[in-house]
Amino acid sequence: MKKFNIIVVGLGYVGLSNAVLLAQHNNVLAIDVDEERLQLIAKKKSPIHDDLISEYLATKPLFINTALACNTSYSDADYVIISTPTNYDEITNCFDTQSVESVISNIINDGSKAIIVIKSTVPVGFTERMKKKFKYKNIIFSPEFLREGRALYDNLNPSRIVIGGKSQECKVFADLLKFGAVKDDIPTFHISSTEAEASKLFANAYLAMRVVFFNELDSYSSIHDLDSKSIIESIGADPRIGNDYNNPSFGYGGYCLPKDVKQLRANYKDVPNVLISSLVEANSTRKDFIAESIINKNPKVVGVYRLIMKSGSDNFRESSIQGIMKRIKSKGIKVVIYEPLLDTSEFFYSTVIKDLGVFKGMSDIIVTNRMTNELDDVSSKVFTRDIFHAD
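-> structure tokens emitted (391 positions)
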């Protein structure tokens, strides 16, 4: 297969995993605004927590170079992948897509004829608006369905590939992704970019819905003194329901689900709906219930064990346990935190305890979204809804 010149803009989980995947057989220029991140990649070290990315950078013969975004020319690129952050803006009720639009503008102003592939999550209809705004037809949307901490694995073994276009260039890009993967016979969908945008948001909304469903089942079981695990296992035996995404938690969180559900709700503003709008409220209700369950135990000091969403991740943006922590603190209860990834002595006005033994000793209750063997010796203090000991 021909070796293409590919630029990847934004080196978070999505961007870096795609850069590594494609750099096996193509010339990849990985760019970012974070110089420290680029220096690590240049030294064949991963700036994010992903074991497979670390392994591939250190051991595989990758055709990858790095550059600061401000020093990049796009003129020789065949494809430019945009994977910059698009945080949800609560004021505008929409993703903040300024970073994506800025990159598109830079590409076009540079005289590039590259195919622009948006992998940042965007509102439904965004790609078509960009084509009209910039009078540039070669813009497509191709969503990612990755897990933090396993991003490269999921790119090497994708459940499906979705491409927002049916042109020859779109088919070539799909082939590039397949060629870099280890999985064979990958289902591939060539649909419109608008349909691809909707596919991304609805997929994450469905996952959020499953989290909400099993959490509400768990809340019901808790109040009525029933065994949640027995109920979940019995209904999961139905193949139409299955056993995925069924482990109770403090609520869905992380970088994707909260913002994607809110964006889909905003896209629904002119469409009759009940379910999509209720997901955000239901998630908040679950956090209220969990916090109240902890408060009712009358602890003087609550220890929060880890702020990350799940094991194998280094991200605690929008983690559900932070919502629990804030609710507990609002009642005047002291909260201390054990989070090895924090290099500060304080987080949102709560003391960060560096020594796990000290943390265990001073906490009346230890709150953790997911159980770990590090807490086995103080299991009588632990509050969790982690039934299956899985993410």
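Residues 308 and 315 are 6 Å apart (CA to CA).
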